[in-house]
Amino acid sequence: MIELPAWTGTELLWMRILLGALFLRFNRVPRPSDLTAPVGLSTLINLNPLFRIRGFDRLGLLLVPLFAAGVAQPLPAVGLAFVLLVTVTLDVSSGAVSHGRHLMVLVLLANAVAETVYWLDREFEFDWTLEPDLAPTWSVQLIAAMYFTAGAMKVINTGGMWMARSPRFELQVLKGDYNASRKQQPIADQFTAFARRHPSVIRVAAVGGLALELLSPLALFHPVAMFIVGVSLIVMHRANGALLQLPFSQNQGIVAIYMVLFSLPLG
Fold first, then answer.
1. With 90 as the cut, is the pLDDT of residue 93 above it?
2. pTM, whole model, 2 decimals?
3. Is 29 contained in some domain?
């Protein structure tokens, strides 16, 4: 049986504040460039006055305080989900291959739908017996489902032979070292040297990450389990950031907000 924390009104407020801050930190409107400019959907921003870059950015700035304060819901939640969904879509259409913001899009969509359903229940008295924490409840379930799906697809697509079909895994570590920034280079060099000396350890760690993804739904069955899974996912992303230059900082923030910071009672 699913057992999630009993979040207080103050905790729900802080969740919205932190999610809004995460949106401001990572939302960016793509600017057409290079060969993709003539065909990327981001050119629509320049063609249509409704999608001027600065105006679209300011729409997010306007909505975040309303969303964080819980004012005029569900409009701010729906608006933020729309803004981020559009910007990520424009980014992908311009040739971007990163999917670091996809979890944030899904969580904002979950918030938008949950706030809409909760508003309908209050406004029209449907008597659906919904709780104020519907948005974080759906968000946590979505996060667990996303990580489980990521792990399951690795297993399904390789017939259960994910590591055996990744004979060049160490090359990914070397590529991460090559792509490291100047500030990250000393740490990346140390990890790369370790990977060369102990390739089996790196493979065991990779299998551990896969196991963690497959076990992530355990977070739904007890607040303590949620905390352990959340911290483990953040550690996994931090390790991937050091080894492969794939930190997924947005995912770390989402996991911290919904699975770590407010999973255990403070008292």
1. no
2. 0.82
3. yes
